[in-house]
Amino acid sequence: MTTTPNDSPPVPTTASIPVTSGLFELEADGTGRLLGGFCASCGRYHFPAGDDCPYCCASGCVRRALSQRGRLCLFTAVVNRPPGYTGEVPFGFGVVELPEGLQLIARITEANLDRLELGMPVRLTFVPVHVDDQGREVMTYAFAPERG
Amino acid sequence: MATGVEIAGVGIHPFGRFGDTSVVELGVKAVRAALDDAGVGRGGFQAAFCGTVYSGVAAGHKVLTALGMTGIPIVNVEAGCASGGAALALGVDAIRSGRCDCVLVFGMEKMPKGIIRSSFFEPWREAAGLAVTPAYFALRAQRLMRDSGVTLEHLAYVSVKNHQNGVDNPNAMFRKPFTLAAVLASPVVCAPLTLYMLCSPNEGAAAVVLRRAAGERPQRVRVRAAALRSHLPGSVLGEHTPMCGLPDETLPAPTELAARAAYEEAGIGPDDLDVVELQDTDSARELISCEELGLCARGGAGEMIDQRRTDRGGPLPVNSSGGLLSKGEPLGASALGQIVELTWQLRGQAGPRQVPNAKVALGHTVGRGANASVVILSR
After folding, report:
1. Residues of A in contact with B132 (CB under 8 A)
2. Looking at the complex, does the CB of residue A59 fall below 8 Å from at least one CB of chain B?
3. Residue of B111, B116, B120, B130 best to disrupt the A interface, most CBs of A under 10 A
């Protein structure tokens, strides 16, 4: 890649975009909800949402916003940048269980494992992963520990 | 009574790193060695199955093209870490069906260093930082520690044991022993797993010639079962590494499904086994595999290590070859590398790694898909 003195890194604008469409809905104030699929046939949720139920094969699943609060089941920290990822390290990584009975693999905002505990309450948030070539912040979902 | 299948010959290209040597050249070496061992030449087998994940289009065909052995059906098989086990299961079925008398099964891989980029993950998962294979291993390790009383020292000991075994294996990539302290002090990759608790993807090939069992032959090794299973819907931390799932404590893992099928097919149970080669992608995976295969009780992995039951000199040696931790893991070749090693064990040809008087052996792989294979051999 060549650079000229006039080149500068992309500057984040106020615009932000989700890492892919259909995972979550972001509000203007930065809050948002994950979108799960709900199967009326077996009563279970899945994520990301799809038309077909990955548990019972029924079709016609509907999209439903998922709870923003959950419980941290398992966790670790990612210290080396994984393939295809250009954002910051380290970051937390874990399994979160939502009241809907669904367990999600998700980023955790806290990478210091001494500050995480099995079973602790966590809350949905959104974090930037990188700035795209149009200067937009690319956002993904994560869970942050909640302090009692 | 099902048609008996026996192992006519085995061959291996060592697991390691081999510069510019192509994956096809690795495969040719292993295939030639297995055919020589079996005394089978051109025209001697009626089908070939090649396990590989990263070798590209028609990789198995290229190996047999190089040897002038084409014309027969050649099937390339991808089933993640269980690719070789899947190829073996197809080969066994081809003989049992009566369609073939002799079948060639081989597997090969040439993989780059470090965390492997896998097309298994969609681009957005990579961009979001969620395509972190060792992090999934780490979560499973933490769950094992939570549920089975397994400690960091237990995890480290698995690495010490397998690396010690690997010292005696000329086909292994790492032949250096490590102390418990060295394993614990190696860099943390994803807590609780340290670098020496994780296997390395690498390069290698292995091949097995199967034939219909007929008459009595000295040192005959029979395939008693070759089972392949995938995951049940819902499990969040299966090797298929999905984004979500249900609390899965009650769902049998793919390894349990494959093991049940294999034990039933063979009429052999875990208590009958003399030597086991199983998936040890990381130290915790070895212990989870032991529990899922019924080699110890659920929650009993830590105690099993404390009693040194799976040491080479113990009552049930596990990964006496050094396992993937010392051999490295060339995906398509790893399951068949186990079969080569176990065949040598049952023939009494395993040299310094020999488990005395081994009569019944089990090979196990599990990985992305999810896929699990369990193979039971006996003499």
Report:
1. 78, 82, 93
2. no
3. B130
Contact B333, B206 (CB under 8 A): yes
Binary contact (A82, B126; C-beta < 8 A): yes
Total-model pTM:
0.94
A78, A104, A107 member nearest B190 (Cβ): A78
Q: How far is CA A30 from CA A71, A91, B14, B360, in A?
A: 22, 20, 54, 61
Residues B246, A20: C-beta atoms closer than 8 Å: no
Residue B233 belongs to a domain:
yes
Ordered per-residue pLDDT tens for chain A, 148 residues: 444 444 555 554 568 899 999 999 988 787 899 999 999 999 999 999 999 998 899 999 999 999 999 999 999 999 999 988 999 999 999 999 999 999 999 999 999 999 999 999 999 999 999 999 999 999 999 999 997 5
Contact A113 B247 (CB under 8 A): no
HEC profile for chain A? CCCCCCCCCCCCCCCEEECCCCCEEECCCCCEEEEEEECCCCCCEECCCCCCCCCCCCCCCEEEECCCEEEEEEEEEECCCCCCCCCCCCEEEEEEECCCCCEEEEEECCCCHHHCCCCCEEEEEEEEEEECCCCCEEEEEEEEECCC
Residues of A in contact with B139 (CB under 8 A): 74-76, 93-95, 105
Give the CATH number for residue B370: 3.40.47.10
For chain A, say whether B244 makes contact (Cβ under 8 Å). Answer: yes
In a domain, B271, yes or no: yes
What pLDDT digit, counting tens, does each position of B230-267 carry? 988 887 655 444 556 666 667 888 999 999 999 999 99
Query: Closest approach of chain B CAs to the CA of A13, in angstroms?
Result: 19
Number of domains in chain B: 1
Range of the domain at B100: 5-114+198-378
Q: Which of A105, A112, A115 to mutate to test the interface with B (most CBs of B within 10 A)?
A: A105
Q: Is residue B109 part of a domain?
A: yes
Distance from the Cα of A109 to chain B's closest Cα (Å) equals: 12
The residue ranges of every structural domain in chain A are: 16-145
Q: Which candidate in B116, B118, B121, B132 is best for mutational testing of the A interface (most A CBs within 10 A)?
A: B132
Contact A102 B246 (CB under 8 A): yes
Q: Please, what is the angle between helix B83-96 and helix B331-347, to 10°? A: 60
